[in-house]
Design a protein that fits this description.
This protein is mainly α. It is built from four helices and two strands.
Amino acid sequence: RRVAGPGPGATSLTGAGAWGRDTAPFPHPTPPPFTTLAWRLSHLAEMLALRADHTAGGHGMTREDYRVAGDAAEALADFAASAAAWRAALAGADDAALDTVGYCTYPYGSDPEDAFLSTVWWVNQEVLHHGAEIALLRDLYRARRGQA
């Protein structure tokens, strides 16, 4: 909860609403704090929503605008909606768009300086990377509780 403030190693909470996601400016803490399922899912949902907005939407959404979910069901629904928005942005891009530098104007990365295909590659690797972490943590949690 936002009222509890940032966790260990974080300096602030990003996002809108009653919940926030821990963050810290570069250089990040070393060693990095262990991030939770909720943090990883929120990170992915925010990234997909913002990149979709800066590709095919209003080009104005910020991290401070993204409302962080407060429970698992809401987080899963947010992720599904964000993934659908990103999928729609990709479906609307033709071959020429893939080669266009700055096709995505996402302000928290190199998107304005990259060909859109590079942005698509980066987003895919983020989803794969953090999605695999989520699956592993979910399985470890389930095994710890004695559930097969």
